[in-house]
Design brief:
Elements: H1 16-26, E1 35-38, E2 41-45, H2 60-66, E3 79-82, H3 86-98, E4 103-109, E5 115-120, E6 126-130
Length: about 140
Amino acid sequence: MVQAVFSQVNLVVKDMDKTLAFYRRLGVEIPDDAIWSTPSGIHHVTLGGAGAVDMEFDSHALARRYNRGYEAERGRVLLGFSLPSREAVDALFDDLVTHEHQALQPPYDAFWGARYAIVEDPDGNPVGLMSPSDDAHRAPPPAL
């Protein structure tokens, strides 16, 4: 049997311009040659990753514990972005919320030791912002 390798997340978006502006503000490089458009507008964007893509599975109970804004109806996909420091998480979260992106989980020290926050992209997809984990900020996991 052929083993499948996770390699892509594909989001169908309502407003391509808002989506591109959001991810560019997040720091994602979107080169012009990655964008396919016709006279009626942009229809497809292909981005290559800089490294391995992580995929994780979380229960509804756990998602409710690390994301105050969690609602199963909002979406069951969370896109995770790593940031270099705890301060960077706070700063980017503040910038995105200032630019009218919905806050789902304000930055906090997560039990796994990282600084963590969640915002929504223009289509309501949760986007996690996470610093490296620091043992000094670890705590026991919540009771589920």
